[in-house]
Write a structure and sequence with these properties.
Blueprint (H helix, E strand, L loop, with lengths): L1 H14 L16 H13 L4 E6 L5 E6 L4 E7 L5 E7 L2 E6 L1 H8 L12 E5 L21 E10 L2 E9 L7 E7 L6 E7 L4 E7 L15 E3 L8
Parallel strand pairs: 6-12
Antiparallel strand pairs: 1-2, 1-11, 2-3, 3-4, 4-5, 5-6, 7-8, 8-9, 9-10, 10-11
């Protein structure tokens, strides 16, 4: 009997962190900060991901990226302006529509149709204006995180991690993190005093397929070509 008790005690000491013993309690649950840190690490190690964001005034953006130097993006504004972009290393291919060009230039653009060809520019160029996307995305912890309710995102079980930051008074970020499989960040909802945005993540580590447009469809701004 004494030998049996010693064996049980040894098993409890070795396995307490996983199964719990004596009082029947299990391992300590991970904190919201730890769960968010795991999610950030998982997202940072991805080889590809698609990011979709919506905001006020009809704004939307969709980016597919390798988180390094290859990505595509489509941005739209409520006033009808649109900008498409392909970034490959140090080169951008951009395709703005007429409304975007007029918004950027502040005056009417000649011609009757939207610009159909891509414009080749250096990736570090300030032109053709706002809406350009960088391929890297930052996934880092900030503020104070607390656990929220269990939920689902497109059928995937998730938990809400609610983050507040003293530097953003009145602002709240709700991270929805997958609870089955890898702890991907599936969605982030930001609600502030003057704006709100929803950012969704999908296509984790799927083939990227980012390619330059056909040469015949490209106007090379570095060679002096002009928008038609």
């Amino acid at each position: 009997m004494v030998g049996t008790l010693r064996v049980v005690a040894l098993v409890c000491l070795v396995g307490a962190a996983v199964t719990g013993c004596a009082d029947g309690t299990g391992a300590r649950e991970r904190s919201a900060e730890q769960m968010l840190e795991d999610a950030n690490d998982t997202m940072s190690s991805l080889k590809s991901v698609t990011v979709a964001m919506t905001g006020g005034a009809g704004f939307s953006m969709r980016v597919t990226t390798d988180l390094r130097s290859r990505c595509t993006s489509k941005v739209a504004w409520g006033n009808g302006a649109r900008l498409e972009q392909i970034r490959i290393g140090e080169t951008d291919y951009v395709r703005p529509n007429r409304t975007y060009l007029e918004r950027w230039k502040g005056s009417a653009v000649s011609g009757r149709d939207d610009q159909e060809r891509w414009i080749k520019v250096p990736a570090d160029s300030a032109e053709p204006g706002d809406g350009l996307s960088a391929c890297p995305r930052e996934f880092a912890s900030f503020g104070k995180a607390t656990k929220g309710r269990s939920t689902e995102v497109d059928g995937s079980p998730a938990i809400e991690l609610v983050v507040t930051d003293k530097a953003d008074k009145g602002g709240t970020y709700t991270f929805q993190v997958a609870t089955e499989g890898k702890p991907y960040i599936l969605k982030v909802v930001y609600k502030g005093t003057g704006e709100s945005t929803t950012t969704s993540y999908s296509a984790f580590d799927e083939p990227l397929g980012v390619r330059a447009p056909a040469e015949a469809d490209v106007l090379d701004a570095t060679a002096g070509d002009l928008i038609g």
